[in-house]
Write a structure and sequence with these properties.
185 residues; alpha+beta; 6 strands; 17% strand; binds zinc ion
């Protein structure tokens, strides 16, 4: 178990991610993203996007094979605020990235340390479809709750937790490492 985490805990990369986190003063307004090499050096420096995405050019995406994409999720109250989105998984798998990390907020005042998926080359479409279906089920449940805010929050948390459990339980099958740092503590 410890061995498997060595690559995730690359010191220089972690330092870069810390710096990235510290730069997120506008986390409530828009997402940010940066791309790193596995040794922790910067491949594409940090840039800002919109409320739910950061734009890279097709050419930049093509060069992300084997790289690590780090990005923030802003606190919109949406189902994927707390967790890697299906689009995140798809993008990482499609472009053959080594890893993807979402830095999220676990509460209004504190950054959660983030969610990491690394070594995802074995992922298949079915894996992402199944993951997306958990999200859709959650969305249906939220829609059915009309404006019951308390219940909606509960379903959002439950759904994010289910997605997280799904990522944890499929590590071996699809050949990746998934790690959460404080998100569901
Ligand atoms: Zn994301």
């Amino acid at each position: 178990m410890v061995e498997n985490r060595v690559k995730v805990k690359n010191n220089k990369l972690n330092e870069q991610i810390e710096q990235f986190k510290n730069s997120l003063s506008d986390i409530d307004k828009y997402e940010k993203a940066a791309v790193y090499n596995t040794d922790g050096t910067v491949f594409l420096k940090e840039r800002a996007g919109t409320i739910n995405e950061v734009i890279f050019t097709p050419n930049e995406y093509m060069q992300m094979r084997g790289k690590i994409l780090v990005h923030s999720h802003i606190n919109t109250g949406d189902l994927t605020d707390k967790i890697l989105s299906p689009e995140d998984l798809f993008t990482a798998a499609y472009f053959g990235m080594k890893g993807i990390q979402a830095i999220t907020k676990s509460s209004v005042s504190a950054f959660s340390p983030g969610i990491v998926l690394i070594g995802n080359t074995g992922m298949r479409n079915q894996f992402i479809n199944d993951y997306e279906n958990i999200l859709y089920d959650g969305k249906k449940r939220v829609a059915a709750l009309a404006e019951n805010a308390k219940e909606i929050d509960k379903v959002i948390f439950q759904t994010a937790k289910k997605m997280s459990d799904y990522l944890k339980s499929n590590e071996r099958k699809y050949g990746y490492k998934y790690e959460e740092r404080g998100v569901f503590d």
